[in-house]
Amino acid sequence: MAKTGTQRPETAAEGAVKLNCPYCQKKTPVIPADDYRPIYVECRACGKRFIAERVRGGIEVMKLEAAPTLDDPDRREIELGQGDEE
Ligand SMILES: [Zn+2]
37 CA to middle of ligand 1, Å? Predict the structure, then answer.
C-alpha cells in the first residue's frame, strides 16, 4: 500500500474543511474523499487519528475504536477483498 505522488497541495488546500476532532474537540483541517469512502484524519492538535466519513449534509467524525468495521478504511479493504470467493 505505498502510495506516493497522489497528493497535490494546491487542490488539497482548496478542498479542506475544518472538523472537530472527536478526541480533543479542537478543529483540524480535513481533506474529504472525492466519494463517500471513510478516510483517516490525523488531528493537528493532539496527533490522534480518527475517521471522517462523508454523509448527507456534511461530514461525520468517529473515533477509531468506535467505528464499525466497514467504516474503518483498513479493515474495510480486508473485508471486501475476502468476500470475493464465489
Ligand atoms: Zn485532536
Answer: 21
* 26-56 CB burial, b ≥16 within 10 A, e <16: eebebbbeeeeebeebebeeeeeebbbbbee
Counting the structural domains of the chain, the total is 1
Q: Is the pTM of this model over 0.70?
A: no
Does any domain span residue 72?
A: yes
Compute the distance from residue 40 Cα to the ligand 1 centre, in Å. Answer: 13
Going by pLDDT thresholds of 50, 70 and 90, the confidence category of residue 11 is very low
**9-18, 43-52, 55-64: least confident range:** 9-18
Distance (angstroms) between ligand 1 centre and the Cα of 61 equals 11
Residue 1 lies in a domain: no
Residue 25 φ/ψ, nearest 5 degrees: 70, 10
Compute the distance from residue 84 Cα to the ligand 1 centre, in Å.
37
With respect to residue 2, please indicate whether it lies within any of the assigned structural domains.
no
